[in-house]
């Protein structure tokens, strides 16, 4: 479509939509999804709160009035957003939008919550900001699918900055012109390369938090009169030209049905603590084990995969079959398949550094390889497949047409609560604290003033 239809830039059209919203206009399923996202997010922050990488972020943060979930200290809003976003995304156990793929709550909630605490805004403003930011993150991820990854960038990181700016701007009540400038400013703050895949180092873990704090800065700069290019998205030197040069952006998918169809209601919640596209393969491996197959019986396992997943989750194959670290194992389908088969799950403990040196897991991972299926629906839908050939010639073939936890096979609210409680306990909290935080998550969006809301305070 013509992005400048009606002589309005894409950013201005998005700003026009945001400026006309209020929390009372949000549909019931949007409000419900926001509550689910917050619950999952808080548990994830608690699970990772005492990790080395979060402690490094905490040590670099400045004191202030904003909450870092799972910590007694309070921090300035930029530091809180960076801490919370890093913790929520750090174990790669956070929600995903199929079609992007992008992670939403780990970017948008830290930005919006910190800004609402800092400026004493209500929970209803936080609800509006979260809904806006998450919806735009989902929609922006569809403009040039696969091209951002292809260019060497992390979509959650670069798109997330735009989404966080929109969410904070909505919560603060910025005008249309201010919101449009916020997009323009955020475009120059976006960053996040995927070279972490080489050695499993920590940079991906901070991408969501960095996008969150950058989004706050972009929104506040625009609020105070700092201008950004209105053609930030479609311009000759704009966002998609820089981050997705191999594909012509489709802005129709971004703008079509905006405010009428909320894509965020289809967000997937992960049952396993690893890369999203590996999740259905883990379920296939678990089923293979449930059929009575033993690891020693297996000659080979071949997985049919989408071409767009290969460079992140499969290559170099020898490296993926023996990941360099527990974090690297999260982005190794051979490792995840082996863990799922041998342990019947792939929880947080499956990705400890000592675990990826387990000789039994590595022996099985070395038997796992892939072939590209040209008909694979990635990134629109995440599917799984394994074809296990046993030493006696028997072949077991298992498919998953959908990701468990996704739109077509969602986790129940009870399953999501169980995941939350498990994450709280993993992070060193007790059941009493888990129950208190669960109640706080259920009531946060109704709080009259998040600046004085003490629901997530540690006693």
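-> sequence recovered:
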């Amino acid at each position: 479509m013509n992005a400048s239809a009606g002589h309005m830039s894409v950013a201005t059209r998005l700003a026009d939509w945001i400026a006309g919203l209020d929390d009372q206009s949000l549909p019931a399923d949007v409000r419900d999804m926001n509550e689910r996202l917050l619950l999952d997010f808080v548990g994830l922050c608690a699970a990772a709160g005492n990790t080395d990488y979060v402690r490094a972020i905490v040590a670099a943060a400045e004191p202030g009035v904003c909450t870092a979930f799972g910590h007694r200290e309070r921090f300035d809003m930029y530091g809180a957003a960076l801490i919370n976003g890093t913790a929520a995304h750090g174990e790669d156990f956070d929600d995903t939008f199929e079609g992007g793929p992008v992670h939403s709550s780990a970017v948008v909630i830290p930005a919006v919550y910190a800004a609402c605490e800092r400026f004493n805004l209500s929970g209803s403003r936080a609800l509006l900001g979260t809904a806006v930011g998450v919806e735009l993150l989902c929609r922006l991820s569809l403009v040039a699918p696969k091209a951002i990854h292809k260019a060497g960038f992390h979509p959650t990181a670069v798109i997330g900055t735009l989404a966080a700016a929109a969410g904070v701007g909505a919560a603060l009540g910025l005008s249309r012109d201010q919101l449009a400038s916020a997009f323009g400013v955020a475009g120059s703050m976006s960053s996040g390369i995927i070279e972490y895949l080489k050695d499993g180092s920590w940079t991906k873990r901070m991408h969501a938090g960095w996008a969150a704090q950058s989004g706050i800065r972009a929104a506040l700069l625009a609020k105070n009169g700092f201008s950004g290019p209105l053609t930030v998205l479609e311009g000759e030197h704009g966002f998609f030209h820089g981050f997705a040069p191999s594909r012509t952006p489709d802005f129709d998918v971004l703008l079509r049905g905006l405010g009428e169809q909320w894509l965020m209601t289809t967000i997937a919640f992960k049952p396993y603590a690893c890369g999203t596209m590996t999740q259905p393969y883990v379920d296939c491996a678990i089923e293979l084990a449930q059929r009575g197959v033993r690891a020693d019986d297996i000659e080979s396992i071949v997985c049919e995969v989408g071409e767009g997943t290969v460079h992140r989750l499969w290559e170099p194959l020898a490296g993926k079959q023996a990941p360099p670290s527990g974090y690297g194992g999260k982005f190794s389908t051979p490792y995840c398949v082996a863990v799922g088969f041998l342990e019947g799950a792939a929880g947080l403990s499956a990705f400890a550094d000592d675990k990826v040196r387990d000789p039994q897991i590595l022996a099985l991972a070395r038997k796992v390889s892939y072939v590209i299926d040209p008909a694979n629906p990635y990134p629109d839908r995440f599917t799984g497949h394994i074809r296990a050939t046993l030493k006696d010639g028997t072949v077991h073939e298992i498919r998953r047409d959908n990701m468990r936890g996704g739109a077509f096979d969602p986790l129940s609210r009870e399953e999501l609560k169980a995941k939350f409680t498990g994450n709280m306990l993993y992070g060193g909290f007790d059941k009493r604290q888990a129950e208190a935080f669960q109640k706080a998550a259920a009531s946060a969006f109704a709080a009259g003033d998040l600046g004085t809301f003490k629901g997530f305070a540690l006693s």
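Residues 276-400 form a domain with the 60s Ribosomal Protein L30; Chain: A; fold (CATH 3.30.1330.120).
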